[in-house]
Amino acid sequence: MITAAVLAALATACALGSWRFTTARWTSRAPRLAVIVWQSLGLAWGLATTGAMLAFAVQPYGTGVLQGLIAFGRGETPPEAWDPLHVLALIAGLTALAVLVVVLIMAGVQALRARRRHRMVLALISRDDPGVPGVRVLDHPGAAAYCVPGLRSQVVVSEGALKLLSEDELAAVLAHESAHVRERHDLVLLPFAALRRALPWSKVVADAQSQVELLIEMAADDRARRYCSPRRLATALLRFGTAGAMPTPQGMLGVHAQHVMARVDRLIKPGPELAAPARYGFIALSVGLLTATPFLWVIPL
């Protein structure tokens, strides 16, 4: 019962923390750290919520969550008799856990299929250009720049983008898209897309997904700034915004119109870095969440 109560309290704390985190003002000063905090909150919330139900369900075994589930799977009879409330908690916990796993797998499969189809289309309608080596060029007058993530990742720009951007601006945009590819931001977004699929009615989940989308764009901007002028990247973003950029294909990473001005303001007027004590504090929080929750699944209390 203690394990179930602790996990329930942790799940509540993660839910409240996520709600408060949607209005945090420091995240743009340390986007990578903010993404890690979001990931730890989401994972801890999922494990704590399902773990609380399952811990109560396997209480008759007198063991931890994991050991109780193993015993149940083996068909062992618990020392204490089952009652309808424990059976209901078991059904609810296993159902919730299965839903989270299934939607994550479905989101991954859907993304892989979308990328495979898009690569097939690109093979037909795009071309190589000596002026931008390693980049696929779409013969389309609209402005577009995005990456196709995966083991065979590709960076794609349109003919309209090549005409719209100066040489320095194009280099900044390509550096940004290459950052998405190197840091595998598609894998960062996948759990949040899956959670949104599982909880489409939750405003907190929708806000979390939107914030993580913006944060990975800012993180890619930070890496691109190592190779180009931040003002060049800002002017490129403004050109995309005013020219009416093409929508990014499903499953790809590209420019989001709703995020352009926030990114431009940050590039032109960068704020101070997050103070070291706060940075270490959020790192400690993330590590604590990612270790405490699995620990509570294993250790009986």
Descriptive overview:
67% of the residues lie in helices and 6% in strands. The longest helix is centred in the middle third of the chain and has 42 residues. The chain is elongated and about 75 Å long.
Question: Short summary of the structure?
Answer:
It comes from Nonomuraea longispora. This protein is mostly helical and 301 residues long.
Helix content: 55-70%
Structural class: mainly alpha
* Unreliable spans: none
Strands ordered across the widest β-sheet: 1-2-4-3-5
Oligomer: single chain
What's the number of helices?
11
Gyration radius, rounded = 23 Å
Main β sheet profile = 5 strands, mixed
In sequence order, what are the helices and strands, one letter per element? HHHHEEEEHHHHHEHH
Estimate the strand proportion.
5-15%
Total E-strand runs? 5
The span between the termini is 8 Å
Number of domains in the coordinates?
A: 2
Shape: elongated
In round numbers, the mean pLDDT is: 87
Please give a handful of descriptors for the protein shown:
metal ion binding, mainly alpha, 301 residues, 2 domains, five-stranded mixed beta sheet
Set down the secondary structure blueprint.
Layout: H1 2-21, H2 31-57, H3 65-73, H4 84-125, E1 126-128, E2 135-138, E3 145-148, E4 154-158, H5 159-164, H6 167-183, H7 185-198, H8 203-224, H9 230-243, E5 253-254, H10 260-268, H11 276-298
Parallel strand pairs: 2-4
Antiparallel strand pairs: 1-2, 3-4, 3-5
